[in-house]
Amino acid sequence: MSARRLLPGSLRAQLALAIALVTVLAVAASFLALYSGTSGRLQAQIDTQLHTQFLEWRQRTAHSHLSTGAELTSAARQFIAGQRYHAESLLIVVQVRRGATVSNNTELVRAETALDHREPEVAGLLSAPAGVRTIAVAEAGDMRVLSAPIRSGARLLGTLRLADPLTPVAQAQASMRRTFLIVGAVALLAAIALGVALASLIAAPLRRMAAVASVAGAGDLSVRAAPVVRSGEIGRLASAFDLMLERLQRAFARQRDFVSDASHELRTPLAVLRAQVELLDREHDEQRRRAATTTLLRRLDELDRLVGDMLTLASAEAGQLVEPRTIELDEFFEDLRRDLPLFGEREFELQAVSGTLTADPDRLTQVLRNLLRNAVTHTGSGDAVTVRASAAGERLLITVSDSGPGIPAAELERIFERFHRGGEGRSRDTGGSGLGLAIARAIVEAHGGSIAAQSRPGEGATFSLWLPGYRPPRPPESASGQTRPGTPSDPHPADPRRE
User: Fold this and answer.
1) What is the pLDDT of residue 319?
2) What is the torsional sign of CA 185, 191, 197, 199?
3) Burial class (CB in 10 A: 0-12, 13-18, 19+), 297
4) Three-state SS for 434?
5) Between the CA atoms of 215, 217, 222 and 226, what dihedral angle is there, to the nearest 10 degrees?
6) Which of 87, 412, 441, 468 is 20 to 30 A off residue 148, Cα-Cα?
């Protein structure tokens, strides 16, 4: 079974468990460090006392020429007799070779002697090797024992053993265990309580987001997670989550509006087509049949144009609307100049600019055609329609102006909406579908530009396109290698977005 399955499912429980686990590990590590350090320091103190006692023995016997067992026995008894200021727990044993054993605790020595006779393979107090060792002593427990040989020249006279019980160390260790057990239990309970509180505080925004996600999954995209928290990673997550919900809400709203508007717009031409087909089926006059067929084909063209416009807007939403490349503006505007008379009998004027532009030429042509059709639709024969192009740094401004009735102020904010039709001044936009200006805005914005309209009722209308990616023409080189100044461009107009 994986570790993830062993953890509780709740985030609060996981955080509380993690905090409790860290607390237990911290207390355990502290206990081990203090336990080991304290035990080591106490044992080192006992060893120091034993070495001090050994140095005192050497000082007492330094001027005594010990050469026989009797002399060693006498010196040992004198040494023990002079140790009354030491703690009673200190054990002194002098084992005389082939002689008696002198000690300040004869009963303990007799018990050890009997134990050594019963179990010779076990090192006891009287058989401890030279140096300092921890020995289990009968009736005294563990003791630190310092064993050192006593020599007279090269001859071994006996062995000095100094022992001190480890009872203080054991008592300190037991006290420390009890203390840490109590402190650890209290710390663990406090850590669990604090962990639950902190986990609840930390998980609250996430629970809020989970609730919002559940409501949004049920279909209500108007709910938001913010302002559950304003900073940190969870704050950024909540902001990104709300931004996602906002985009989803706008996308679903656009989808609903588009489906509703499209179904409404398609229903009318389909009904007309059905009626005309039914009339055509009952018509016997050949001339009327040809006229009805012509009308039917025109309606089909209108329907085809409407479907094409809808697909164009769908491509814009998918981010696949334009394929920019370098456009030579001289050629582009020359093609536009040749096509202007085809839009109708108007007084067309074109003021072009040289250079290059990074854009999709087909889509840019579609925008200008939509604007020109819109201008022609709202003007009469002989009215003026003007197209002007000018450069402003690395941006290109193209304006399409007409001398028509203008656009009411209340309509200026809505003329770029889908399926919007103007009021009395400008009854319909391009083609009458209500999509021409919406397509123009989608294409311009797909290029990273902007489009705006300015108008006053009775004074015509002007549509302005700002497009990035403009490059001025390179000055041609003269025969002498000098460059001739280029043709100055029109004065830079103000960007309507900066007004």
Assistant:
1) 59
2) negative
3) exposed
4) coil
5) 70
6) 87
